[in-house]
Amino acid sequence: MKDFIKRIDHNSDLPLHRQIESALRDLINSGAYDNGKLLPKEVDLSLAAGVSRNTVRQAYSSLVQEGLLQRKQGVGTIKVASKNVVTHLKKWASFTQDMKDQGIKIKNYQISLEKVPCTEEFEQVFQVSKEKYITKLTRIRGNEECPFVVFESWFHPRIPITDEQKFDKPLNEILEKDYHIIAMKSSEELQAKLADSRISALLGIEKGTPVFFRKRLVYDAGNRIIEYNKCYYRHDKMTYKIDINRSI
User: Fold this and answer.
1) Which class would CATH give 85-241?
2) Which residues 6+ apart lie within 8 Å of 186 measured at CB?
3) CATH assignment, 2-79
4) Average pLDDT for consecutive 10-residue bins of the chain (248 residues)?
5) How much is the pLDDT for 247?
6) Where does CATH 1.10.10.10 sit in the chain?
7) I need a surface site. Which of 85, 119, 181, 213 has the fewest CB within 10 A?
8) Where are the alpha helices (DSSP H) in 161-230?
9) In the chain, which segments carry CATH 3.40.1410.10?
10) Residue 152: count of CB within 10 angstroms of its CB
11) Residue 241: what pLDDT?
């Protein structure tokens, strides 16, 4: 409990319920509350952290909605026995930040940059001639257990990314800080696919295994395309959570 309390900074600009939510994620991922062990009661956490019970309840509720926790009437709150990683579609956040918020340490299994010929697909996407070469970035990422996502990014020829780049930060952060290119809009498509021999080998799964496939176009403030991105997620390791607000 003392380590939990040390995480709460009443002078921080980050809302208290978000701080408590982050600290709870660490508890969930620590393994200390596996096998049905009850998490601390709301009233106990509120007294220890010096916050209202509603603040703690808000943090718990957020994790329940994500599917990380389950409330049992008259019993308490337990960790849901699921190994799936949740990624959100309600806000613009990097994969790295999304995983960090969940207390998941990401491992890079492969990062490579290469020049590839401009196919008909890229000619249509980027509106360039086939004589051009396109820069392709491949990243295979996961946790310590296994890789669970393949990111393939192709950049418009005007984007000056080179193999001198270390790619040790989120891609949008690299584009903004190192190249002064700010991503402002993303257009995405999601569908289920069966892994072909190439993707199955990269993710360590059998050919024909279902994967989540996401295709994304990223634009700058002038609505010019920056990046064409394809992602392949292991269906047994990733969950997409979509929050939609109704307008009335």
Assistant:
1) alpha beta
2) 92, 216, 217, 218, 219
3) 1.10.10.10
4) 78 87 82 84 89 91 80 85 52 63 79 93 88 92 90 94 85 88 87 93 93 91 90 83 62
5) 58
6) 2-79
7) 119
8) 171-179, 197-203
9) 85-241
10) 16
11) 64
